[in-house]
Amino acid sequence: MTHARVMTLVQWARGSDWRLALQHACPNPALVWFTRGQGLAIVEGVRRGLGVHNALVLPEGTMFSIEPGKTGFGLVCEIPRQSAVPMPDRPHLLRIRDVAGQNELTVIFEAMSREQNDARPFAEEVLDALAAQLSVWLRRALIAHPEEPRPRAAERLVRAYAALIERHLCEGLSVADHARTLGVTPTHLARTCRRLSGLSAADLLTQRSLYTARDLIETTERPMADIAASLGFGSAAYFSRFLLHHTGHTPSQLRSAARARLRTKPAL
Predict the structure, then answer these.
(1) Which one of 144, 174, 205 terminates a domain?
(2) Span 3-24, mean pLDDT?
């Protein structure tokens, strides 16, 4: 990815609900503009409600999941991490109440979508310019909206845990390992995660591993044993049981199903 791009949440998830619902991380900075319905987001282990005209800022490497709800709709602008366009280095959820601010952001998204769809000369230059305009809109919005209160100890703990999961994803560490690093008991960590996210500490860790496992299975040709080892699983057999328990399918079945979907996907 070399230029900013705009897509719907469904397109961002590539048509697979699990790509939004499971804990994962942005490969690039992203701004989610939620424009219809009611949904939920869990960002750095903290649950937040999503409503109309909410802007969710997700820096590169932020662990999160989104449940748009049955009628939820949103647009996503993803900006290359190597871009010179400045983006915040921590997540934000902005509830944009002024109509002018709502219209400004909507116009930027619509202009980016037109450039992508029309494929006119110099479209990439226009997309870069519009990404810079979006950055300005965002920085102005952050100034206009007061900073959130300083996170309490519980929220700081859960955010630190989410960061540890992301940092050590491929090392096969347990909840107890992370709790030890954080200086708390596994029970306290589990209880705090459940209170702030609705998920236990084990759920957050499992979802994050499951997402990467499914992504590697469905988008690469790497051997299953290689994927298992790269995620810290002790054996390919344990990896297969893990996938079967959480998805109802073996790794080979997931890969075969993904290939079948690609073969039947209509040409754009």
Answers:
(1) 144
(2) 95
